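Case 303 in the screening queue. Each case pairs one protein sequence with one candidate compound; here the compound is N15. For every case the pipeline is the same: read the inputs, emit a complex structure as tokens, and attach any notable structural observations.

Predict complex for case 303.
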Amino acid sequence: MTTGFKRNAAQSPARHPLSENQTENKNMEQSSIEASKNGKQWCLNDFEIGKPLGRGKFGKVYLAREKKSKYIVALKVLTKSQLLKAGVEHQLRREIEIQCHLRNRNILRMYGYFYDNKRIYLILEYSTGGELYRKLTSKGRFNEKNSAKYICDMAQALSYCHAKHIIHRDIKPENLLIGSRGEIKIADFGWSVHAPTSRRNTLCGTLDYLPPEMVEGREHDEMVDVWSLGVLMYEFLVGSPPFEAEGHSATYRRISRVDLKFPKGLSEDSKDLIRKLLQKDPRKRLSLDSVPNHPWVLRNLRS
Ligand code: N15
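Case 303 output:
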């Protein structure tokens, strides 16, 4: 066992999702306490494996059902040899610890994990709405009402993380899922910084969401997530990120200069919020807690 996972390592308190009702978190918490008492460890045999939901660099995600409770989850299967080869096992441990302790309706829950000789299995919340990236691609862009709800939810979820001194640093549509009530779910915590997706490997995919201080290699803090939220809001409303360019260095220049251009048809208050999020000076960026009170959000969340 070279991954550093101890058999009795502390796991999520809610690692035993025995509830019949997926939406009842209370039941899950209760049964998880029972599970802790029993000292139950999960194993692959506890789950029925369904269709694949997605594929990443280190493994696949499957639809799965816990046999006893019939609880539906997303089971992420990571290959130890691939993790070791990439030297990311410490990063993974850290991310698992972070993810297990986050409880927010806009952050994908991780119920626990287990492993065998070859693989590590992450028991993740199943999002019925699927990947936001796909929805954005098929629709082209989102209307103001949906965008405002997503951005408001994201701001609150990120604020929750910042209060726990967790910076996401990799906000982009590929890391977001949609829940059963259409709510946004942040699905990936910093992990993908070290686990490049195919889009990140392409020439210019990497930089689009990064703030000036990061592309310039300067020190950065939690205000990087405020910038990324601005980029995300622009992409929701326009259909492509604001600093997109041919190649790495052209994107770098556009970000560094905050070369922000709006297509015709965007509302004035939406442009105002985007500008306030996309400030070059991190200290001048709008605080996350002010986002829900911005006129554009208020106007679109009414009705
Ligand atoms: C490093 C680790 C501790 C962080 C844990 N988070 C992740 O591993 C990030 N992650 C989340 N990687 C894959 C997923 C993931 C979770 C991918 C897809 C789904 C998921 N939950 N639900 C889905 C899902 N629901 C779908 C519905 C329709 C079509 C596709 C769907 N994918």
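Case 303 observations:
- The pocket of N15 is lined by residues 53-54, 61, 74, 76, 92, 95-96, 99, 108, 110, 122, 124-127, 130-131, 177, 187-189, 191 (CB under 6 Å).
- Residues 1-34, 190-205 have pLDDT under 50 and may be disordered.
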